[in-house]
């Protein structure tokens, strides 16, 4: 077989395998990568890369290695979900960086984390003054969570004694000019209601790029023809 064609076939196969493995391990693994997830991702990536272009290595040997390591990662994931002790041992546990407004230098030193890194994490949360922080915790996924001191907390409707309306989960009704039938079925929205909203605006489905029933129950839609006289195009 032509080596270039073989590499293309193996690359497509490697991509398909990684998609299957990723779906098996679950979305939580991607969003909340811990120590063993990081190790698994690096190793699986290395094996998959060899599977894609290393023609000197037997395909079946790579497949066995890939399936075996994926199985180990999945078994570890099951144990992590079932045992808190095992989860703390293999994934670690959150670490306090700021307590009662005081920076815990000893914990930061153990974690090999600098003040620059801590300040960067806080700035990403729109906290530019570390003196505003009551508690800061380094989570298992490497992100920092912070609790502001009382005087810096934002005012809520409850603080002001205001009652709010019940909010709903937004339901996407039209996307790319097509009605999302599943959302109509499970989102407690009828086809008649959608059409009535479009008729009020004298619109057809084909004219709508995106439409959603928002958290407040209001209908919002964006048209293909935006009517902007001088659109900015820097993409």
Explain this structure to me?
- The protein is of the alpha+beta class.
- It contains nine helices and eight strands.
- It has helices at residues 3-25, 27-31, 35-53, 59-82, 84-91, 105-110, 115-123, 181-186, 191-200; strands spanning 95-99, 102-103, 133-138, 144-148, 171-175, 178-179, 208-213, 219-223.
- The mean pLDDT is 81.
Q: Looking at the structure, what is the overall shape?
A: flat
Mean residue pLDDT: 81
Cα radius of gyration in angstroms: 26 Å
Structural class: alpha+beta
Order of helices and strands: HHHHHEEHHEEEEHHEE
Question: What ranges have pLDDT less than 50 throughout 5 or more consecutive residues?
Answer: none
Distance between the termini: 41 Å
Major sheet characteristics:
4 strands, antiparallel
List its traits.
235 residues, alpha+beta, 4-stranded antiparallel sheet, 8 strands, 15% strand
Write a concise synopsis of the structure shown.
With 235 residues, the chain is an alpha+beta fold. The chain is 47% helix and 15% strand.
Question: What is the strand and helix layout of this fold?
Answer:
Blueprint: H1 3-25, H2 27-31, H3 35-53, H4 59-82, H5 84-91, E1 95-99, E2 102-103, H6 105-110, H7 115-123, E3 133-138, E4 144-148, E5 171-175, E6 178-179, H8 181-186, H9 191-200, E7 208-213, E8 219-223
Antiparallel strand pairs: 1-2, 1-3, 3-4, 5-6, 5-7, 7-8
Helix pairs in contact: 1-3, 3-4, 4-5
